[in-house]
């Protein structure tokens, strides 16, 4: 079975560089499934999970948006943040979710709703990836 090298990079450094047989992710245009030999492509990603499948192994990564670059033998993901389930601080994600929900419920006019909405999405995404629900 042929494989793709998957490389995930953030401003803090590389998160993963490993071979897999399939990459599934959520681009802004919709769900993508990438196999070796895929045509070259660049796509913006949503706040979502990257699902990786290899021979006898699988992994998942929570990303807060970013870009996917596909080449026939390589997938590169550039993201502002990217965490494997084992790197997710579940209490921090729960607190971030509660904080964002409180801000969104607040009726004060000076709340930055878009910012709170994005923070809520990041927190829910981390909780989903940690709990394996996506
Ligand atoms: P918080 O409000 O808790 O900081 P956030 O969504 O605003 O959450 P980001 O700006 O997306 O945080 O990320 C900042 C840095 O902190 C990134 O390096 C990211 O990987 C890390 N990070 C954020 N939340 C978590 C978490 N729950 N577990 C592990 N790392 C996290």
Automatic annotation (TrEMBL):
Write out the coiled-coil annotation as residue ranges.
90-133
Record has Coiled coil as a keyword? yes
Q: How does it sit in the membrane?
A: Peripheral membrane protein
* GO terms for cellular component: plasma membrane; proton-transporting ATP synthase complex
Q: Which InterPro entries match?
A: ATP_F1_dsu/esu_C_sf (IPR036794), ATP_synth_F1_dsu/esu (IPR001469), ATP_synth_F1_dsu/esu_N (IPR020546), ATP_synth_F1_esu_C (IPR020547), ATPsynth_dsu/esu_N (IPR036771)
Give the Gene3D superfamilies listed for this entry: ATP synthase delta/epsilon subunit, C-terminal domain, F0F1 ATP synthase delta/epsilon subunit, N-terminal
- State the source organism's domain of life: Bacteria
Keywords, A to Z, come to: ATP synthesis, Cell membrane, CF(1), Coiled coil, Hydrogen ion transport, Hydrolase, Ion transport, Membrane, Transport
Its primary localisation, in coarse terms, equals membrane
Under SUPFAM superfamilies, the record lists:
Epsilon subunit of F1F0-ATP synthase C-terminal domain, Epsilon subunit of F1F0-ATP synthase N-terminal domain
Q: Name one GO molecular function term.
A: ATP binding
Boundaries of each ATP synthase F1 complex delta/epsilon subunit N-terminal domain copy?
A: 4-82
Would I find Coiled coil among this entry's keywords?
yes
Q: Where in the cell is it found?
A: Cell membrane
Residues annotated as domain ATP synthase epsilon subunit C-terminal: 87-130
> Could you say which residues form the signal peptide?
none
State whether it acts alone or in a complex, and with which partners, per the record: F-type ATPases have 2 components, CF(1) - the catalytic core - and CF(0) - the membrane proton channel. CF(1) has five subunits: alpha(3), beta(3), gamma(1), delta(1), epsilon(1). CF(0) has three main subunits: a, b and c.
Summary of the function given for this chain in its UniProt record: Produces ATP from ADP in the presence of a proton gradient across the membrane.
Question: To which protein family does this belong?
Answer: Belongs to the ATPase epsilon chain family.
Fetch the HAMAP family from UniProt. Answer: ATP_synth_epsil_bac
What is this protein called in UniProt? ATP synthase epsilon chain
User: What species is given as this protein's source?
Assistant: Halobacillus halophilus (strain ATCC 35676 / DSM 2266 / JCM 20832 / KCTC 3685 / LMG 17431 / NBRC 102448 / NCIMB 2269) (Sporosarcina halophila)
